[in-house]
Amino acid sequence: MAARYGRRRSVLRMRTLAGQVFLLQVAIVVLLVAAGMGALVLQSRSDSEREARNRSVAVAETFAHSPGIEAALESPDPTAILQPRAEEARKRSGVDFIVVLSTQGIRYTHPLPDRIGKQFVGNLAPARAGKVVTEKITGTIGPLVQAVVPVRGANGAVIGMVSAGITIDHVSGVVEDQFPLLLGAAGVVLLLTTGGTALVSRRLRRQTHGLGPTEMTRMYEHHDAVLHAVREGVLIVDGEGRLLLANDEARRLLSLPADVEGRPVAELGLDPRTAELLTSGRIASDEVHLVGDRLLAVNQRSTDADGGPPGSVATIRDTTELQALSGRADVAQARLKLLYDAGTEIGTTLDVVRTCEELAEFAVGRFADYATVDLMSAVLRGEEPTPSGGGAEMHRVAFHGLRQDSALYPLGTAIRFLPTTPMGAGIGKGEAVLEPDLAALRGWQQQSPVRAQKLVDSGFHSMIAVPLRARGVILGVAMFWRSKRPEAFEEEDLSLAEELVARAAVSVDNARRYTREHTMAVTLQRSLLPRGLPEQNALDVAFRYRPAQAGLGGLGGVGGDWFDIIPLPGARVALVVGDVVGHGLHAAATMGRLRTAVHNFSTLDLPPDELLWHLDELVARIDQEEVADGNEGGEAGVTGATCLYAIYDPSTGRCTMARAGHVQPVVLHANGTADFAEVPGGPPLGLGGLPFETLELQLPENSSLVLYTDGLVEDRERDIDESLALLRRTVAGHPDRSPDETCEAVLRALLPERPRDDIALLVGRTRVLDPAKVADWEVRPDPSAVGEVRGAVARTLAEWGLEEEAFTTELILSELVTNAIRYAIGPIHVRLILDRSLICEVSDHSSTSPHLRQAATTDEGGRGLFLVAQFADRWGTRYTPDGKVIWTEQPLPSEEL
Fold first, then answer.
1. What angle do CA 138, 142, 147 make, to 5 degrees?
2. Side-chain-side CA neighbours of residue 208 (13 Å)
3. How far is CA 188 from CA 37, 137, 497, in A?
4. Alpha helices in 647-803 (DSSP H)
5. 314 has pLDDT over 90
6. How does 682-703 read in b/e, with b if 16+ C-beta sit within 10 Å?
7. What is the top-level taxon of the source organism (predicted)?
8. 3-state DSSP helix/strand/coil percent for the chain, to nearest 5?
9. Which residues pair with 433 in a beta bridge?
């Protein structure tokens, strides 16, 4: 064993510890007897050695503690300082040498200068540990005793050593006064007995590595357990590749013979891979090796990592059954992972076709080589499918596979699965169908024999068909095919396919129901928004409406944004843009109510601020109605809405506008500059309590007014200030663009890729009435002035070529002017406008509005306004800051239209 650990083999070759102890005890007895016999001879020698030891220790300690020794050792050249001092001390003390050493044992001084700088011969370990050590050796000058004393620095650490030695012959003359011979002999015997006991103990400790009896017993028990009881193989291989130990389990697992200890591992008949691992000694962790019909997990570590003997130890355990269980667990885990991924990757949109495409794309590569999805025609239209899908017409909406030119039905094909085929029967019953061997042609080929033969010839060998079923009805069928994968579909694959399709069917049904609701909402919304431009000459108008992307903005993007172009009396036009917060049917319905209200309020010819005030009250009432219906706290509990209302008068070029929480409009001037109109901000509709203010602008001809909702400028990828600046830059610099071109440019620049809110955009370019088609007069508050007005009107109509309308117009103006003279106060003004109709306006400073009444047969008056209503196409009253205007409209002759 000593040879294995790199040490010399002991002279004692007894194989047991007891035998070695016996031989050592015999040797001690022999030495004691010999000591008694030679006591007289050795007494003098013993005294000499003691004297030599004492003197060498004394001299070494004295020199080690002499002044300046520490500084000399730490100097760059200790020899230059210490060599003279050491020689002088040697001569005075009478010793044979004084040697100063470094902590590594290199001589700094020596009586023979050629020995300086060489390694000191002797035991230095105790001195390095801070102890004094003496030893007797036979040197070139004969037997001598030398002592080694440590030199400590200021911090107590050993910084060097001093050795002093003297030959025994040099001190032999000092033993004349020693103790009697008998006491000397007894001391020698005692010394030898103690030394022998120490030697035995040291040898025993070396052999047992310092273990006591209890530990030795426990180690034996553990060793026996490793060899015979542990159910894990243990192999110990030395540094030369020979097997030192193999327990019973290792012998069983590796089928080793009985006499394997000491043989090279390469000669044990192991498989090359396992033999290479054991002989290499490399580290291995759970490395799996196939040995016979067993899967063995091998762990190997080196034995010399902490100074132990060279070699390695390996542990082996049988993992054959564990691998089988682990394989089944891995398959189950993979299936769970597949279903989890399907939940995140299928049904990401509320689109029926896209959901089917996601199912097909997901299955190919993970589960099948080809996948197809066919849906009922009713499902594609968003309608309720029939309770049973058997024999119903389906359309192929999704196809994905390794190749696109397979013999499968292509996309868009209308398919009716025959009830006599397994697929048709399964669809009718809502049951999945597994065809593990298509080449057997067990009925599935009846659907299309020619196509079926092409599929088999091209390598298709296995198929699963699973109906898409949701809420008890069949939506379609998903089919999975294998051609490249050699393994056929099994029953476990069928259950996986059913679970996969069941999850996809829910998403398809949700998308179908969404499609139906979306169609209803879009129909409602389209019925509420303007379908065209009204006839008017004040503005050249274009508009755009973009709903939010389906699935992002509520119910298919259907929202509450609206716009309107409303012709007003006096050739004026009102532009309206509004936004109801939220999406879906409720927002669309509320938008329709507000748009209708704006139309009704506009017939009263109210200024923008008053119209918004009335609209604000309406929204507040709508909220109260929602609360009364028990919806407080619900999604539709509070109606949030904004609105911008502008009136443009082409006869003056004046534009008056007010806003309720809406974004500022953009004004494009005729010179190409663009800026935001600073319309005073009012609160959103429905808050109440705060007034609305108006802004009046002078818009020259060919100026443009750009009205829009916040969906155009609100984008998660861009700050709203940046969007507003981009809008202004897009509009500016292009006064020659038509309103339609301006709409397209704005949408190209600002429309988000995935709009989350609907967008309404309205662009109006101003026109100005020809001054030649406008005539006005100031009327004196005198009944005689009526005739003057009639004459002026007749001449004007003659200039316009409307002589046929002169009588009717004179009659209307005569009645209106007469009423103004009789009942009104202040100046009276008459204006005649030729536009799409002939417009007559009579204004005064009275706020009293005339009203139509039925005159009795005996009444002398009261019929004038009745005649006006009969001859005019429309008539009405609008109020101004100074009073009121009574207006009428007469249709023009057909050739003027």
1. 55
2. 22
3. 12, 18, 97
4. 720-731, 739-750, 785-799
5. no
6. bbbbbeeeeebebbebebeebb
7. Bacteria
8. 40, 25, 35
9. 465
Instruction: List the structure tokens of 860.
Output: 């002398």
Number of Cα atoms under 13 Å in the Cβ half of residue 115: 16
- What does the mean pLDDT of the chain come to? 80
Identify the pLDDT of residue 860.
Answer: 41
Is-contact 319 297, C-beta < 8 A? yes
666, two tokens = 């953009």
Sign of dihedral through CA atoms 170, 173, 175, 181?
Answer: positive
From CA 779, how far away is CA 774, in angstroms rounded?
16
Phi, psi of 717 (to 5 degrees): -90, 0
Q: Which of 300, 322, 318, 324 is nearest to 231 (CA)?
A: 318
Contact (CB, 8 A) for 244 and 261: yes
Given a contact cutoff of 8 angstroms between Cβ atoms, the answer to whether 415 and 409 are in contact is yes
Entry pTM: 0.53
Q: With residue 345 as reference, give the H or E element that holds it.
A: helix 320-345
Collapsing DSSP to helix, strand or coil, 192 comes out as: helix
Residue whose pair of structure tokens reads 């200021």 in the numeric block: 154
Taking CA 851 as the corner, what is the angle to CA 846 and CA 852, rounded to the nearest 5 degrees? 150
Determine the length of the chain: 897
Q: Which tokens sit at 85? A: 């001092």
pLDDT tens per residue across span 715-732: 777 888 999 999 999 999
**Residue 268 bridge partners (DSSP):** none
Sequence-ordered list of residues with C-beta below 8 angstroms from that of 90, at least 6 positions apart, any chain = 96, 97, 98, 111
Q: Which two tokens stand for residue 306?
A: 């902490």
Confidence tier at 5 by pLDDT (50, 70, 90): very low
Q: What are phi and psi of 246, to 5 degrees?
A: -145, 120
Q: Are the CB atoms for 356 and 397 separated by under 8 Å? A: yes
Q: Using alpha carbons, list the distances in angstroms from residue 581 to 391, 544, 586, 724.
A: 47, 19, 10, 20
CB 718 within 8 A of CB 707: no
The sign one gets for the Cα dihedral 272, 274, 278, 283 is positive
Question: Which of helix, strand or coil describes residue 585?
Answer: helix
> Is 268:237 a contact under the CB 8 Å cutoff?
no
Spatial contact of 548 and 554, defined as CB atoms under 8 Å apart: yes
Ranges assigned E (strand) in 519-568: 539-546, 559-568
- Show the tokens assigned to 427: 């669809």
Collapse the DSSP code of 880 into the 3-class scheme (helix H, G, I; strand E, B; otherwise coil) and give the result: strand
Backbone angles phi, psi at 523, to 5 degrees: -60, -45
Structure tokens at 551: 């699935």
Q: What angle do CA 443, 446, 449 make, to 5 degrees?
A: 120
Q: Rounded CA gap, 762 and 249, in Å? A: 89
CA 824 from chain center: how many Å?
Answer: 75
